[in-house]
Amino acid sequence: MRISDMRVHMLALLRIVVDIFHLNVEYAMGVTDIDDKIIARARETNENPLHLARRFENRFFEDLSRLNVRFPMVRLRVTEHIPEIINFIQKIIDNGYAYDAGDGNIYFDVKAYESGSLGFSYSKFRVLKDAGSWGGEVSDENVSGKRSPADFALWKGFKSGIDLDEYSWEAPWGKGRPGWHIECSAMATNLFGEELSVHTGGIDLQFPHHNNEIAQCCAHHSTVSWGHTWMHTGHLNIEGLKMSKSLKNFVTIREFLENTASPDDLRMFCLLHHYSAPVDFTERGIMDARSILNKFEALQSRINYLRKTSASEEETHGIMRSRAIPSLEIHRSITKAKHSVLDALSNDFDTPLAVRKLLNLSTDTQRFLDEASSVSRQKSGEKFARIDLHSAEDAWNVIANYMSLFGIRRFNNVQEIDAEPEEKNEGKVSILDIADAIAACRMGVRNAVKSSGETLSASQSTPILKWTDAARDSLLPILGKKLNDLPDGTYRITEWSERQQKLEKKRRKEDDLNRVEREKAANENAEMIRNTPAEEMYLKDTDKYLKFDETGIPTHDVENNPLSKNLKKKLMKAQRRHADRRAKLLEVSP
């Protein structure tokens, strides 16, 4: 599975609807286990098409599990709904909105649909005049009985030498298999009836696929609309181009998890972008997502440390947590964050704003702890702050609970922090507990050395301090943690794997690049665009393309194979962007 395919599943929309707004949802997912591409791939691998489809389906759901994505309640496979699909098509024919194009092919009649007495409109997502430009399926071009370019296949007749007997079914109009669009309409109708509350998918499926789903269901049910809400996720781009197999610029989920980051990093990356917006997939974007998770964990580590030290002071000096004066400011921040997060999620699932509000709460809580620690050090005779830890813990619980609800796995089992957490977790020791114990021991040794005055000579204290630094720089990373010393004498512990260290080192190297060199590169790129007309931009790529049309768009690859329509469309879009940028550069040229 590609990262782009996963985006709709990673956005936690189902979790938000069910766990935050407490709505009862029946969630089904369609599985296409029959189409032209599966047949072609099966021929290449000499594999049974159904076995091939099931193998990739299993890998898909394995990836869902790795990413902590909830499975659908119902999985709808096309090959298990052939009778329902045939009956669905027959009713569309009976209602007068489909025709037999010969050789077992059944086509949806868009003209009849538009001119019908019920007032149907085909133009849900795009006007009818554009319908013939979307390309349809390759095999459509060879169907002589097709009446209009806008018409699309409901049933594809059996073609000897192309189709497989075991992958074809008998129907009243002839042996064959379902077209691309009909499967979703028929399976959804069979499960949910005439009404569908929410339909999701990528923006690239909006037209023609979703448009045709609506037309099929309206023609079948004799209703003027179908599907109450349509939610489309934006494209995931790499270097300005949509991530796709045809451009060979895609990243698989497994490659990403092995080489780049964790499932939590990817989920946070998705949460930081609105589901309908196009997104540029960059390493820096993943680093930003990880940084936010680390900030949340840093707050958790700091509260854990302060809780343990305050518990020790209660035993030694009788300082009671309950005597601390509650912070009205932090409680106001908590209340504001709760309302703001719900408002954001209620406004078309604005997860980027919701995360920012939780980040603001984390920052407010850290500031509150900073100020409380600073005030305590000014009071004579007190080594520790009488900090209202309950307020800080309340803030952390809000953050952790939302992160868990959003599907961030590291917060899935977070229990509310209270005055006696040891009683709830007696006998259970986590990696974070071990790291925290090492950090606390290190902090105690360092403080003892620094407060020893002249008792220890420099030759005696230096090796000890070097040892404490080694514990920070070498021991804790083995546990996957990073230790940060804070000015107030406390510390923060965050996730820090070897892979993250390499990525951080790489990021620093990139950030340290000379600004002049970056500007020089940008100027050289602008100069290249300025000096290259759009119709000439591909002509130099002779290692990729052999033939070009009159506008400079490649038509054949280097092996003289015709380029697909989808690839040519993408190249045309890139050419238009080049032309637009060149025009702007020429406008500002002296």
Structure, described:
Helix content is 52%, strand content 10%. It is built from 20 helices and 15 strands. It has helices at 3-10, 13-20, 36-45, 49-66, 82-94, 110-115, 182-192, 206-221, 253-259, 263-271, 283-317, 328-346, 351-377, 389-405, 421-424, 431-450, 458-478, 498-511, 515-531, 565-588; strands spanning 28-31, 74-77, 98-102, 105-108, 152-157, 176-178, 198-202, 229-233, 236-238, 241-242, 279-280, 481-485, 491-495, 545-548, 554-557.
How far the N terminus sits from the C terminus, by CA atoms, comes to: 49 Å
Low-confidence stretches: 131-139, 314-325, 376-385, 415-428
Tally of helical runs:
20
The protein's oligomeric status is single chain
What's the story with the biggest beta sheet? 4 strands, antiparallel
How helical, in percent, are the residues? Answer: 40-55%
| Average of the residue pLDDT scores | 80
Helices and strands: which structural class?
Answer: alpha/beta
Report the sheet-strand fraction: 5-15%
